[in-house]
Input
Amino acid sequence: LLQTRGPARSRLPVTTEVRGEPGTASFRRFFKNTSSGELISPWHDLPLGTDVGEEKWMVTEIPKMTRPKFEINKAEPHNPIAQDIKNGEVRDYHGPVYWNYGALPRTWEDPSVKHPDLHVKGDNDPVDVVEIGRRAHASGDVVSVKVLGALALIDSGELDWKVIAIDATDPMAAQLNNITDVEAKMHGVVSGIREWFRWYKTPDGKPLNKFGFGERALGQSEALEMVAETHESWKKLRCGGTIANGMWTGSA
Output
């Protein structure tokens, strides 16, 4: 059974089903509606919002302290989680991700829209989430997370937002209400996230990544505004108002 953390009033009736062999290009983790048994998309069918305004649902792709690069497959029907492929081989990061890493359902960074301040376009993906709680989630877990802030990563000339959030049930969640609380009470976490994403591509001979807004992490209200904007972009993609370019969007 898929673990769905958060208030009991808003648990999601979702399970996952593995097909193919782990560690190979055949591996897929599909999402299913518990009641009907039908396949659903973790990107298009799961809700974004919870019963609490600053909390959103996160689809866990990569558990903390692991290296395999799992991600929602945008092209395949029902968007299962798969391991990224590079040069015909499954892809691992060169070192572990120190936090749980995932995506926000029903969001999309539109590659045709240039950010008015940063002058770069979206990376064509759902919005990424770095979850800083103490528990390691499993790949496929759907977790209610409290949005605290965001970093504007500029990766290969594309805007790739990284929401910083914490599991809503984590013991620290009640003490964290903005990114300044994270800086004050979880020393080194924000800078650690920033440096991890700055350096992670350099072992492949690629340059250091950059960040917008003077490299500062934006606060909760700015992060939530960005999430709302990317949700509107997703709506246009979903209804056909934006060209899908090979992405599976199901039926609106």
Summary: Residues 3-9 have pLDDT under 50 and may be disordered. The longest strand covers residues 142-155. Residues 23 and 90 are 7 Å apart (CA to CA).
